[in-house]
Fold this sequence. Notes:
It is built from 14 helices and six strands. The chain has 413 residues and is an alpha+beta fold. Strands 1, 2, 3, 4, 5 and 6 form a six-stranded mixed beta sheet that branches.
Amino acid sequence: MASTTSPAAPVRSAWHDVPRFQVRRFAELAMADAPTLAEEILSEIRREYPHLPVVLDESGEPMALVGIRRAIEVFVQHLETSEGRLSVPPGVFQEFGRGEGLGGRSLDSLQAIYRMGVRLAWRRFAEIGQRVDIPPPAMYELVDAGYEYLDGLVDQSVRGYAEAAARQAGERLRLQRRLMELLLAEHHRGDPADALTERAARIGWSPLPEKVAVGVLLRPAREAVAPAVGQGVLLDMEYEQPRMVVPEPDAAGRPELLHRALSGWAGAIGPPVPLADAAKSLRWAEAAVRLMERRLLPAGEVLYCTEHTEALVLLQPEELIDDLAVRCLAPLEHCGPTHGRRLAETLLAWLETRGGAPEVAARLGVHPQTVRYRLRQIRELWGGEMDDPDRRFELELVLRAQRLKGALGEPRR
């Protein structure tokens, strides 16, 4: 025989079983007592929390008193009607949370205050319940309803707190962006020291650092979350390539912190410079990023310009170096690409070592006799220019640039 499942019996409410005349009498007494109860609760709160700010509404009445009284009245009205879900009075408790957020305080004390208010209200409601003979099970149910109501009040305050936090964060970002604009301006009008100090103080970026390094970042994805670079680092995510200003970049622990925070990001951090020269650090970081995008510097990581000085110096003035290369390497035009590259690598190894055939051979990984043969050819191609220090310097510049671009092989170390 097939089994059948009977529907679950509805949960009985002890409060709903209380005769209506008793409920109405309880609500009348509680509503009449609401103003006095609100004042007693506020008095106890002020005694326990004497430093709590007193905010007045337009009529000059404390907003806290208005909120407590309104919360009591809404709760009592719902007890009497039992219609729908108990809703929390909007506005006031949200404003309480907003005030805590704007004041830089946590919600812990506010929640403790709310719990105190519920306890005091329960004591008064218990006295009224005894006077009108409300059964104990119904009163216990009233306690549960009170704490559920408390959760709603806290939710309203959390919402206000979050709004305040978002507003403050937005304001701080705006002020931080203005500070960075002033800091990274190429040409300052007059002495910007006072303006920098004033703007920095407004976001807590003080004292002003003596040195900074400016970074330019490449997003790992268009919707990438801002890296957690720390409170002291200024970060502006509004740019297509976000910028950051790192105070005292050589301070103990700073490189390690940035390495962890920027995991998964790419970009470049310019050289440390005095605060007034921040724009110069930005220029080098931007130059490094351009070379990264051309695959002339390592991609996929955040690199430091100070570790890639040779590439930045030689590859930045590209037109000048290329023009110099055309003139300096003209003797190789008729040697063929493969043989010309080998001669160029041999010449660069000789310029860097200024040693004999064995030293150059070890650097290139070839036989010394091969090096001697190539060096004789090089002497024939360049002739007396090989003895001119200025020509040797220019040749080394253009050949190093060629190697950085990948046109020449790396030497053995």
